Structure formats: structure tokens, C-alpha cells
Amino acid sequence: SAFQCKTHPNINRGLWTEESVLSHRDQAKSFPVGNELGVLKWRLPSGSESMLPISVSCWPSAVGNNVTVNLEYESASHLEVSNLRIVVPCPSQATISDVAEGDARYLSKNGTVEWRVELVDDSNRSGSLEFSVNDCDPESLFPIQVTFVCKGNLAEMSIAGVSDARSGKALTFSGDPLLEVEEYQIQ
């Protein structure tokens, strides 16, 4: 797998490595009940873009000092992407001419064009935005920041069961897998 996993210091690493079981390393102790506690983290290192649930492309074309920018997102993932936000630095006033999905606006206070798509699912696996900027060097439109949230996870990990470490008795549990972007930049 391309994912790098890291366990909480109180996890029995041998049991995790050999059997993919998360258990307290000291069987006399337990994890707090009713409180959220991260016991396993995993990350997808840079260079693994093919696994991302969404990809974003930017195509600036300059004519003199005027730049027309075409942005596109595509999702080939089975995951629903929500709160997609694409932010492009923009040194001067932008004119938005076409938004195929979501909403876009120029934020003069931030000097950015912000494109938001509330939900990306089977009905809109791709979308595009076109805007133009006067007196602009295409290089000044980068880096582009991308953020989004997905229910589920790319690693396709799931919790098969939860049991009491002392008795082995199966316990009732719930889990809500959620993927959040730490950093996604287009240079």
C-alpha cells in the first residue's frame, strides 16, 4: 500500500504489525470510553496523486497582459466529495465568465478567485470554471489551494469489530470514517 501508518504510543505495535489489531499495549489499562481518541493515523505521501478522490487542473492562456484561466476538477472516485473549495491567487480584479458547477467569485479583500462546489457525486464528477484577469502574469496565479472532505477513506480501512481486551466479549461501536485534506497545492 502507498499509505504510511502511525499508531498511538499506547498501541501494541507487534499485534498491529502482525494481525492488524489495535490493542492497548498494557492489557491492565484501557482507552477512555466516550471520548474521541486517535489511535491510528495514516497518510498518503506526495507523489501519489493518482489515488486522490479529486484532481484539479489549471490552464492559463495569456494574450499580452491579459490572461484567461480555465480550471477543471475531475473525480473518478467512488467517494462523495463535499465542500470542495479551490482558491486561486489573483493579483487584480477577475471577471468570471463561465461556471459549470458550483459558485465562483472574486474576493478583492483576499485577492483570490474562490470556486466552491458543495457536493461532487455521480451527477457532477467533473466541472469547470473560466475567468479572465487583466494585467496579470500567469505565474502569479499559483499556488492554487484545494480543500475538500469525503465520507469514507482512501485506504479502504474499516473496523471489523470491537471487543473487551480482558473478556474478549464483542462490544457495540460506531465509526464515521472521514477524509480531510491536510494540504493540496497546485504549483
Question: Could you explain how this protein is built, in words?
Answer:
The protein has one helix at residues 13-19, and strands at residues 4-7, 40-43, 55-63, 66-74, 81-89, 94-99, 103-107, 112-120, 126-133, 144-151, 162-163, 170-171, 178-180, 185-186. The longest helix is centred in the N-terminal third of the chain and has 7 residues, at 13-19. Strands 5, 7, 8, 10, 13 and 14 form a six-stranded antiparallel β-sheet that branches. Helix content is 4%, strand content 43%. The protein folds into two domains: 1-43, no CATH class; 50-151, Sandwich (Immunoglobulin-like). By secondary structure, it is mainly beta. It comes from Guillardia theta (Cryptophyte). Its main location: cytoplasm. Keywords: Cytoplasm, Cytoplasmic vesicle, ER-Golgi transport, Golgi apparatus, Membrane, Protein transport, Transport.
Can you lay out the helices and strands and say which pair or pack?
Layout: E1 4-7, H1 13-19, E2 40-43, E3 55-63, E4 66-74, E5 81-89, E6 94-99, E7 103-107, E8 112-120, E9 126-133, E10 144-151, E11 162-163, E12 170-171, E13 178-180, E14 185-186
Antiparallel strand pairs: 1-2, 3-4, 4-9, 5-8, 5-10, 6-9, 7-8, 10-13, 10-14, 11-12
* Total of helices: 1
Query: How would you classify the quaternary structure?
Result: single chain
What is the CATH homologous superfamily assignment of the largest domain? Mu homology domain, subdomain B
Structural class: mainly beta
Q: Round the mean pLDDT to the nearest integer and report it.
A: 88
Overall shape: elongated
| Low-pLDDT segments, ≥5 res | none
User: What is the string of helix and strand elements?
Assistant: EHEEEEEEEEEEEEE
Portion in beta strands: 35-45%
